[in-house]
Amino acid sequence: MQQPIIQIPAEFKRLFTRDFREAAVWGGRFSLKSHTVARLLLIRARQEKTRIACFREFQNSIADSSHQLLSDLIAEYQLTDFVITDNSIINKVTGSDFIFKGLHRNEQSIKSIEGVDLAWCEEAQTLSQNSIEILTPTIRKPGSQIIYTYNRLFEDDPIHIRLVVEGRPNTIHINVNYDTALKYGFMPESVRLEMEDDKAKRPALYKHKWLGEPNTLEARIFKDWEIIDKVPHEARLERYGLDFGYSNDPTAFIAVYYYNGGYIIDEILYKKGMLNKHIADVILAQDKQVLVKADSAEPKSIAELASYEVIIAGTKKGKDSVVHGIQWLQLQRISITKRSTNAIKEYKTYMFDQDHDGRYINKPVPGNDHIMDSLRYALDDMILSSREVKKPRYGTGDYIMQRLQEENETGGDSYY
């Protein structure tokens, strides 16, 4: 059987040369950056023995890496010379191998990597200055190359400052957007319609999402949150927060802890296509005595979860509840566990929207808010009371049952 031809847009042809040290490849959504670089890596791995390292700032498991994209392309193009394991990819003809690593707080593991010929940093807009300074001298084999793909977040993204604004020797720049996909007929009609809708109705979102323009720092809703290794043993589990999703949006489920005057977000679930029974199974695998606060716009889903013996209540909503929630959270000290990769992404890209004149308005850009909503739901009592959280008057189990009783007495959306 003849293998399919691997097509590469001409805009990326410079990546196939061997005379550059670093490459900055940036642009908006559906500009084919990641898929093209993944195809390049597979081609190089088939041509000659090549050690390829795939990096991200945050990678707590192989599921957070580029492993799945590469595996999907190997299946699509029927590249039977590759052997795929749970955490590596090897070409059995040339001996090429792929390794996958996270950079954040992983200095010693990164420094120990030897013999890398080609490195790929995906989602490089999230790279810290420290990670960049650790990575570049690690990829030190003569003739080795590093490719960074990214959608710009802010004007001062460290990787863009390094490679484009300041510049580095033997560095190439490739700036592409969705028009590349349109040009070659690679953009599905559903994606094109989404782009056109954003262009017509949400100009600020369109510029960032599809044209790759960076946000200004003033657009960022939350700042100065800390990324921590894990939840301290002394932290007290306050609530769970749940935002429902299915086809287009993920279901987001988080645990919220109170510790040393602040809150800690620990991501548990962030996945599309979850039925309520599957969600219940995830929740019941946690601490069953801790209350789940969920989106009250889904009363049927809340009732179904309650039928599986989940202790759950709908969040309290009112006029301007989103704005009030944001304002309250802006005053809190908040940390995120490093395993909470989607929470970290949402935190860094949660922005104020703009009107048609480009002025910021007091509401967030929709769509990038699943965990942010879950956080508001989990802490809705504190937000509505507009006072600093204190330890509950009751023990954990007694407190939950007391709150459920109070909400039932006042007509709240509670189920137990």
Could you explain how this protein is built, in words?
- The chain is an alpha/beta fold and 416 residues long.
- It has two domains: 171 residues, Rossmann fold; 197 residues, Nucleotidyltransferase, domain 5.
- Helices cover 34% and strands 22% of the residues.
- It has 15 helices and 18 strands.
- The strands form three sheets. Strands 3-4-5-2-6-7-1-8 form an eight-stranded mixed sheet, with helices on both faces.
- A hairpin with a 4-residue loop joins β3 and β4.
- α1 packs across α2 and α7 packs across α8.
- The longest helix has 15 residues.
- It is globular.
- The protein starts with 21 loop residues before the first strand and ends with a strand.
Brief rundown of the structure:
This protein is α/β, with parallel strands linked by helices. The chain is built from 15 helices and 18 strands.
